[in-house]
Predict the structure.
Amino acid sequence: MLVKHSEDVEAHRDRMWRREPENSVEDAFDAEKFIESVGFCNALTDIRRPGPSLFIAVCGRREAHMPRNVQKDPESRLAWSIKDEILRRGRVYYAKLLKGHSTFICRRLIPHFRTLKGVARNKESALLSQDARAVLAVLRVEWESSTGDLRKASGITERARFSKAMDELQRTLKVVPTQALYEPTFTYIWSLAEGRFPEKLETTISREEALREVARAYLHGAGKTIRGELARYTGLSPADAGLGNWALVDEGFAVRVGPGVYSLKELESIGRNLTRQASSHS
């Protein structure tokens, strides 16, 4: 559902989410700065999904649509190549994480997402599927593997089953792709997430802090959120999203404008001042 906000909110999102031609993302270094500023974002989503996106930031405009034939579109090709370069550099977290979408997470928020979505090793047998555990067992021996080799070694030859297991391991912060290879055929190289980000995945964060900081990162970029927006973007439950937002209100970072509607305190003050000025001139 695409919602049109007031122009001051949309202008804030233009600046923070790089939806301006003069502020568009042009390379991997710039993309990493963008990811750090927003905290987390989707990789290749367009205007049809709210929230920050690398593809939209590359396009540098609000009305960015992913074409059907991405190989012939220069903007989608650039976004894809930047994604691959970020993957290779390994300075930010990348995996299919938020509601099945490819997601970037800055290093400082990795512990927070681990708290909210990760599975502790001593709970893997109860919470992970048999196929996911089979893939994980291979990677804990081999440390890294291509997609094809990992399918063979895990014994999961059916493509759909293997993809489902990999999606499960990505959304629980167990495995990450570390490289995309295109010759002789396309494949990802997979590794354990704890091997690439050991310190961050060992850091303990309380659930309350994790919810608050994830909500803070999203609201900082969005400026204002409507009912259910944070939950829809992150996959958090509405109750958890509400707890995160309320924590921001309690510390004075945000203002509750209405049921389920939250705004940056500074942005809400600007909006009220503009409204008063308009009323005084009418």
Remarks:
- The beta strands are 40-42, 93-98, 101-105, 144-146, 175-181, 187-192, 224-225, 254-258, 261-264.
